[in-house]
Write a structure and sequence with these properties.
Layout: E1 5-11, E2 16-17, E3 22-29, E4 32-40, E5 46-47, E6 58-64, H1 66-71, E7 82-88, E8 95-96, E9 99-102, E10 105-108
Parallel strand pairs: 1-8, 1-9
Antiparallel strand pairs: 1-2, 1-5, 3-4, 3-6, 6-7, 9-10
Enzyme class: hydrolase
Pfam family, one: Transthyretin
Binding site for substrate: 8, 46, 109
């Protein structure tokens, strides 16, 4: 099963997939967040099974534990975590949220 939301984390400095990054998915609203799922990136830096196959429309949040990832490699980082908020809309089959990561910068985008 592939989740409604997936991610792929690449370590742009080392030029390798970022394996072992803890990722959580939560529903986010004005009152706070409710965790939906949690996972860890695989050897290819991917999370294919991050939550259910279908999510209700709304705002969701991915939190990636980038500080722990870099600490495990003995690398200083400016970002202890990366938080990405995004909207899930009715009728969309899949959301892929990639992250290109370095110790002092990151980029994310709506993938396919």
């Amino acid at each position: 099963m592939t989740s409604h939301v997936t991610t792929h984390v690449l370590d742009a400095v080392a030029g390798v997939p970022a394996a072992g990054v803890a990722v959580s998915l939560a529903r986010h609203d004005g009152a706070g967040t409710t965790e939906v799922a949690a996972a860890v990136t695989d050897a290819d830096g991917r999370c294919h099974e991050l939550g259910p196959a279908r999510l209700e429309p709304g705002t969701y949040r991915l939190v990636l534990a980038t500080g722990r990832y870099f600490a495990a490699r003995g690398t200083e980082t400016f970002y202890p975590q990366v938080t990405v908020d995004f909207r899930v809309e009715e009728g969309r089959d899949h959301y892929h949220v990639p992250l290109l990561l370095s110790p002092f910068a990151y980029t994310t985008y709506r993938g396919s």
